Amino acid sequence: MSDKLSQNLYIGLVHGPIRSKDGKEITTSVTNLDIHDISRTARTFGFKRYFIITPIKNQQMMVKKILGFWEADSGLIYNPDRKEALAEAEVTDSIELAIAEITRLEGKKPCVVVTGANFDAYDGKEKELIAKIRLDETPMFLLFGTGWGLTASVTEQADFRLEPIFGIANDGYNHLSVRSAVAIYCDRLARSL
Predict the structure, then answer these.
(1) Cα dihedral angle (50, 48, 153, 184), rounded to 10 degrees?
(2) Which of 15, 23, 89, 168 has a CA positioned 20 to 30 A from the CA of residue 59?
(3) Domain ranges within the chain, ordered by starting residue
(4) What's the pLDDT score for residue 118?
């Protein structure tokens, strides 16, 4: 993996705005598993930061409390590896604030990439995405949705819509947990770099 690219990769897990089962715009709850497992995946595959995106203040406080535990001595003594993984996690109010933070860190706006199994059209696979960010020399911000996926307002503003993960059975079933999807995409992207 190119050192330059590995330093410019970011993940965002969006809890709001998200689609509900009936297509309405909602905000989903942050789960403890998503905080821990996606942080570990991001760290394993060289992503610089993992943004947990929720506009709900109580959810933000909960995330900060969990992250704070692993920064404290008791968490560090219990599992030092967890502290290292969670050091890259950050909670924020919105996608726009996460983009602003990446822009501040990198000096340029990231290529915003969205994933999902429910899009009408896609811009390509991992190879095409890597070619785009290399050509544009931009950081990459890979967004994942919770609930029933990212809203149209999010996907329409994205720079790249990444093709979904298809299973081997090819029988139309396509409903991975977000943690599984993050791990698969991160592995594929890291190998493509």
Answers:
(1) -80
(2) 23
(3) 3-192
(4) 78
Sign of the CA dihedral with 39 first, then 45, 3, and 124 last: negative
Pairing of strands 18-19, 25-26: antiparallel
In sign, the C-alpha dihedral spanning 157, 158, 162, 165 is negative
Report the 10 Å Cβ neighbour count for 93: 14
| pTM of the full structure | 0.90
Collapse the DSSP code of 89 into the 3-class scheme (helix H, G, I; strand E, B; otherwise coil) and give the result: strand
Residues 6 or more apart whose CB falls under 8 angstroms from that of 115 comprise 142, 143, 144, 145, 161, 162, 164, 181, 185
Which residue in 75, 97, 13, 11 sits closest to 46, CA to CA?
A: 11
pLDDT at 79: 61
Residues 6 or more apart whose Cβ sits within 8 Å of residue 76: 70, 83
pLDDT, position 1: 41
Q: Report the alpha-carbon distance of residue 193 to residue 172 in Å, rounded.
A: 29
pLDDT digits (tens, 9 = 90+) for 167-193: 787 777 777 889 999 999 999 998 887
Q: Which fold has domain 3-192?
A: Alpha/beta knot (3.40.1280)
Contact call for residues 178 and 34 (beta carbons, < 8 A): yes
Query: CA–CA separation, 50 vs 106, rounded Å?
Result: 15
